[in-house]
Design goal:
This protein has ten helices and no strands. It is mostly helical. The chain has a single domain, classed as Orthogonal Bundle (Tetracycline Repressor, domain 2). Helix 4 runs antiparallel to helix 5. It starts with 8 loop residues before the first helix and ends with a helix. The mean pLDDT is 90. One of its GO terms (molecular function) is DNA binding.
Length: 201
C-alpha cells in the first residue's frame, strides 16, 4: 500500500488549510461540487498540492467532514461559554443558537441541504457521524448550564431539526419557529424527566 506524504508541522498546517477549504466548498456549493480542483482554487493552491496531501476524493471528503464538524463544535462551544459566564434569559433561544449555523434563514436552509446531501457521500457522512459525539458532549454541557439537563441532546436536536424543516418548507422564520417549539417543549420534557427519576427512586 502506498504511503502518504511524511508528516511535518508545515505539512499538517497545509493539510488543515486544505481541509478547511474543502469544508468551504461543501458549505457553499454542496458535496457534489467537491473536487481536488475546486479545493485548490478555494485554497489558492496548486492542484498538485491538493492531490499530494489528499490523494483520493474520499480522503478529501473525510477531511471536509471533519473540518465541518470542528467548526460546528467550536460554534456550539462559543455559545456554551457565553451562556455559562453570563446566564441566559431565554434557554430555548440559546440552544437554537448553538445548533444552527450563524447567518440568516438562507444560511440555515443551505446548512440543512448540505447535511442531507452529505448522506450521498459515504466518506463525508462517516466523518460527520464520527464527530457527532463531540457535538453532543458540548450540547449536553449547554443543556446542563441552562438547567435543562433533563432533556436529552437527541430530543433537543430532533425538535430543532423538525422545526427547521417545517419553517423552511412553509416559508416561516426559521430561528423564531425553532425557538418557539423548543420553548414550548422544554418545560414538559424537563418535568417528565424529573417524574421518571422520582419513579425510579
Amino acid at each position: 500500500m502506498a504511503e502518504g506524504p511524511a508528516r511535518t508541522a508545515k505539512g499538517d498546517r497545509r493539510r488543515a488549510e486544505l481541509a478547511r477549504a474543502a469544508a468551504d466548498v461543501v458549505r457553499a456549493e454542496g458535496p457534489a461540487a467537491l473536487s481536488h480542483r475546486a479545493v485548490a482554487a478555494r485554497a489558492g493552491l496548486s492542484l498538485s498540492a491538493t492531490t499530494y496531501y489528499y490523494a483520493g476524493l474520499d480522503e478529501l471528503a473525510a477531511a471536509a467532514g471533519a473540518a465541518l464538524m470542528d467548526a460546528w463544535v467550536a460554534h456550539a462551544g462559543d455559545v456554551l461559554g457565553r451562556a455559562a459566564s453570563g446566564g441566559a434569559a431565554d434557554p430555548a433561544a440559546v440552544v437554537v443558537e448553538a445548533v444552527l449555523p450563524p447567518g440568516d434563514d438562507a444560511a440555515v436552509r443551505a446548512h440543512y441541504e448540505q447535511l442531507l446531501a452529505a448522506g450521498r457521500v459515504p466518506a463525508l457522512a462517516a466523518a460527520l457521524g464520527s464527530g457527532r459525539a463531540r457535538l453532543d458532549a458540548v450540547l449536553a454541557d449547554l443543556l446542563r448550564a441552562l438547567g435543562a439537563d433533563g432533556v436529552g441532546v437527541p430530543v433537543a436536536l430532533a425538535l430543532v431539526d423538525g422545526a427547521v424543516v417545517a419553517a423552511v418548507s412553509e416559508g416561516r422564520p426559521v430561528r423564531a419557529t425553532a425557538r418557539d417549539l423548543l420553548a414550548a417543549a422544554l418545560p414538559a420534557l424537563h418535568a417528565a424527566a424529573g417524574d421518571a427519576g422520582d419513579a425510579v427512586r
